[in-house]
Amino acid sequence: MSIFTGVGVALVTVRDGRDVPDAAATAAHAARLAARGMRAVLACGTTGEAGKLSDAERAEVVTAVREAIPREIPVIAGTGATSAARAAELTAAAAEAGANAVLAWPPPDCADLAGYYAAVGAAAPGLPVLAYHVPWVSSPGVPVGALAGLPVAGVKDSSGDPDRLLAEVVRYSGATYVGSSALLALAGPLGCAGAILAVANVEPELCSAAFAGSAKAQRELTDIHLAARAGGPPVLRQMLAASDATAPATSPAV
């Protein structure tokens, strides 16, 4: 079973002028995106710069987002870590904070992916777990051939590799969520369950149209996709501050 279908957002964590995370502003941003058609919200993921958040800040963001958006829209919390024990700890905390599912990248060079994801799942029984293939964070990531043997509901693939995406959809029976905004017009018609996207912070409607198969929308996403790929979350926060008067200004990227 998929956790959701359609396009979800990999939420930025809004930061104030002192570069302090602002849970209330982040939740308000999530609510606006939900109203604009986002089908899920990933909080405290790589786009949310979870590594810069304390455990208390993570919990505050997840709780605030969960309270701000409609109940039918799942909140997914990022809980990947460099050890199974730490990932389990983050998963338990995310469940307590109100998350409906978790997304976890594995430790780099993980020798026991099944054991790692079993530990994550055991930390919050009944909470769906998504594997996260993001090789620049946790190399080499999650091989397609390993997915069927993992105790997960599906996978988010942020590799940007169309060959891998095709293999996942054809050879893996779980839900595949594309994480690259360059592949949306392929991923939707190909049969991916959905997408979880950083650029949806700024262009949610274009992301939804591209996932529905619009080549025009896919082309129109080019500039923001490339900017986000080059500059990451700080660039997305700057775009939001420039386009949305309700979003706090951010301190310059360093």
Task: Provide structural commentary.
- The protein has an eight-stranded parallel barrel, surrounded by seven helices.
- It is built from ten helices and eight strands.
- It has a single domain (6-243), classed as TIM Barrel.
- Helix 7 (184-190) packs across helix 8.
- By secondary structure, it is of the alpha/beta class.
- The radius of gyration is 17 Å and the shape is globular.
- Helices cover 43% and strands 13% of the residues.
- The longest helix has 22 residues, at 222-243.
Major sheet details: 8 strands, parallel, barrel
CATH architecture: Alpha-Beta Barrel
Based on Cα principal axes, name the global outline.
Answer: globular
What letter string, H or E per element, gives the SSE order? Answer: EHEHEHEHEHEHEHEHHH
Distance between the termini: 41 Å
Give the CATH H-level superfamily.
Answer: Aldolase class I
Number of domains: 1
Side by side, the strands of the main sheet go 1-2-3-4-5-6-7-8
CATH topology-level fold name: TIM Barrel
C-alpha Rg (nearest Å): 17 Å
Q: How much of the polypeptide forms β-strand, as a percent range?
A: 5-15%
CATH class label: Alpha Beta
Average pLDDT, all residues: 94
Helical segment tally?
10
Structural class: alpha/beta
Percent helix range: 40-55%
Question: Tally of extended strands?
Answer: 8
Low-confidence stretches: 245-254
